[in-house]
Specification:
The protein is mainly alpha-helical and 266 residues long. Helix content is 73%, strand content 0%. It is built from twelve helices and no strands. The chain starts with a helix and ends with a helix.
Length: 266
């Protein structure tokens, strides 16, 4: 259970709020980096860390205790520092007001900005205490290339994959590499908008994203078989655990549909 659940918040409501707050953190991160392709890797890391800090924060605090958007701002502010791409508070506020204008809202006034800054700094300090000032966090992004290579080797030994290949399985597997990593990275970013990063070590989360990405690209591959192949690629990855992460990542997309439906109905 979570503090929000104990506070009477329904699971569906909690998932939706966590998703929306994570989406806001990701949009804020993109605005801070002006969607600069040259800083894409840094921006992706900020997005992942911001979502992670937000998810962890609400394992210690209820959604009814702290405004989710304010927590998202604090998480983004902290994430920028941790990946050595710090942004001044005025830069955060500028990006925030940019998002507000795009959403048809008024910019924050001086007094509102002052109060927000004070609250963000307090939440940031609380986050630091929650993570125990531990900044050397392994990210699933770093596990993707090596794990993808190992999975592709296993694919060439898989009956379902080989029978669907039009040419040599080794050549088709090699040709998949770039697309597989790119698609898996996208699913990985989305996974941090839910509970997946809290389920296990980063390599396990990377494995779940790779399973979904492979299934997305090669529809003939059953998820159960991909979980087995990932275990064969890395014996430390339990098939059941990988499947659990896969299910949790897919839950993010169900939550996304729910949030979008609510937005259209509003």
């Amino acid at each position: 259970t979570t503090p929000s659940r104990a506070d009477g918040v329904l699971e569906r409501e909690e998932r939706a709020t966590r998703f929306s707050a994570s989406d806001f953190a990701r949009n804020l991160s993109r605005a801070l980096f002006n969607n600069d392709k040259q800083q894409e890797d840094g921006c992706n890391r900020v997005q992942i860390l911001a979502c992670y800090y937000l998810q962890v924060f609400y394992m210690f605090r209820s959604l009814r205790q702290e405004d989710a958007k304010t927590v998202a701002i604090a998480a983004t502010f902290l994430a920028c520092k941790v990946v050595d791409l710090p942004r001044k508070m005025r830069g955060i506020l500028r990006a925030l007001n940019q998002l507000r204008v795009q959403a048809g809202e008024a910019e924050l006034g001086e007094e509102e900005q002052k109060k927000l800054c004070e609250r963000v700094l307090k939440i940031e300090f609380l986050m630091l205490r929650i993570i125990r000032f531990e900044f050397d966090l392994d990210l699933p992004l770093d596990s993707l290339p090596g794990l993808a290579e190992a999975l592709l080797v296993q694919l060439t030994r898989c009956k379902e994959f080989c029978s669907a290949c039009k040419g040599m399985p080794q050549q088709e597997a090699h040709a998949l590499r770039v697309q597989l990593i790119r698609v898996a990275q996208s699913f990985l970013l989305d996974s941090f908008m839910g509970f997946a990063p809290l389920l296990g070590r980063p390599r396990l989360v990377a494995a779940g994203a790779l399973a979904i990405a492979t299934r997305y690209i090669r529809r003939e591959m059953p998820t159960s078989e991909l979980c087995r192949l990932l275990h064969a690629a890395d014996a430390s990855l339990c098939e059941t655990d990988v499947r659990h992460v896969v299910d949790e990542i897919l839950h993010v997309f169900r939550t996304k549909s729910q949030v979008q439906a609510q937005g259209r109905g509003a």
